[in-house]
Amino acid sequence: MYIGERPHKCRLCEKTLKDKNSCIRHERIHTGERPFKCRFCHKTFTQKGHCTEHERIHTGVKPYKCRFCDKTFIDKTSCIVHERIHTGEKPYGCRFCDKTFTDNAVCICHERIHTGERPYKCRFCDKTFTQKGHCTEHERIHTGDKPYKCSFCDKTFRDRASCIKHERIHIGEKPYKCRFCDKTFTLKSYCNVHERIHTGEKPYKCSFCDKTFTVKTSCIQHERIHTGEKPYKCRFCDKTFTQNSHCNVHERIHTRDKPYKCSVCDKTFKENKSCTEHERIHTVEKLYKCRFCEETFSQKGQCSAHEIIHTGEKNYKCSFCHKTFKDKKNCIYHKRIHTGEKLSKCRYCGKTFTQKSHCNMHERIHTGDRPYKCSFCHKFFKDKYSCKEHERIHTGEKPYKCRFCEETFTQKSHCNVHERIHTGEKPYKCRFCEETFTQKSHCTVHERIHTGDKPYKCRFCNEGEPNNAPDSEGETDEIRNVENKLTNNNAITYHIYKEERTEYYHKDDDTFTTENVTIITDNDVYEILA
């Protein structure tokens, strides 16, 4: 036989091979024949050698030892590839770019990024893959097969890499060190991704725009923004997600599962990230500094949100109206006003909310819980923002400045309302007449004139009840005036304040007299409502 001659041709395709055995093994790809069965499980193989190597997973035999360290392997190829970590040898070069590899199989898979080839298709769905191993691992999602078991605990895994990574938690091993800093990793792939922070390399490009990514999964998730694909569906409602992790976190709203517990206190969280950020409250660790001022934050998201105060940037636009927002989360919450979606339900009364945080705050009305304490006094609050606003009374801080004058405010909402004096904007309109208002609360109080609703009741008398006032003509205008104002919580407070100093007397004919009654004038009431 001549050098390079390939006399054996596959009967099912055009491929030619050097020897008969190779041809037989190749034809099994077409026929699906897998004559070699593992002695320990139901797995079958096209080649005897592959079956032998697989059985070593069960027996733990690793006959091949690295020449440079104590690491051992179940197959010779893996050992040779590993030794190249020590020697630095990368004999396989990509045909399309300058990237080189220690393993030919890895090089072939890499080239498919350039060619777009995805030759392996899932048997259960239409998903395709660049690598056979990735396809096999994916199919286990459908079958539920988890053949890899941790040597230290009972945890099982769909793929070997995840099992190895998990076992390193037990032994504390981090064998892969960054070439640019001292950071170490449990997996080579993690180390590669980390090193791209230093090199700036972003090898994965979106198929629909020019955006590039350091990690392939990030690219795939980004492309779903363009395609609208949301493959992960909640088991409890119809909500769908672009990422499985997002779906898992969402489902905890339904199950109320909070698997992450603070190491300092008993607080629990749905997400590990939220738990980590919370723990910084105890350590007073503030890693993130504003680029424009000296303010520091324990969370990156808080820092980014704060910096927008300086930049005024609003990148997120509502798809139902023209409103824009500084952060994505607030835009999502706003959209629920249009859709009417209210995912979070109170455990005590059934009231529903667009935001989980609003539901949590509402539930504290039932529980009486006030977890946030002022740093300067002993006052406690139901929510973090009320506590922060209160602390500004002590510090004198007024971070919000009017765009039209020099007036400053402790709260953003107060600044917004004030600016309407300059703009003349009155966005809240009465449902029953043409009257408009700068504040929603003023509009709500006004509408009670039309509806007759008096939700606030005096603790000491019946004032404020719908039918508390006598129908007699002897009722004074002053008392009627007070009654009409009890549509507002401030007014009921003021009424009680006055009531503690006066007495109402009944005449024998069940009518009121104005003797010893402190008269509340319109000016008094306007002062209350101001």
Automatic annotation (TrEMBL):
Q: What is this protein called?
A: Zinc finger protein OZF-like
The primary site where this protein sits is nucleus
Query: Where, if anywhere, are coiled coils annotated?
Result: none
Per UniProt, subcellular location reads as: Nucleus
> What's the name of its gene?
LOC106152107
Gene Ontology BP annotations: regulation of gene expression
Q: Report the SUPFAM superfamilies cross-referenced here.
A: beta-beta-alpha zinc fingers
- List the keywords (alphabetical): DNA-binding, Metal-binding, Nucleus, Repeat, Transcription, Transcription regulation, Zinc, Zinc-finger
Cellular component annotations (GO), alphabetically ordered: nucleus
Record PANTHER family: PR DOMAIN ZINC FINGER PROTEIN (PTHR16515), ZINC FINGER PROTEIN 22 (PTHR16515:SF58)
Q: Where is the C2H2-type domain?
A: 8-35, 36-63, 64-91, 92-119, 120-147, 148-175, 176-203, 204-231, 232-259, 260-287, 288-315, 316-343, 344-371, 372-399, 400-427, 428-455
- What domain of life? Eukaryota
A GO molecular function held by the record: DNA binding
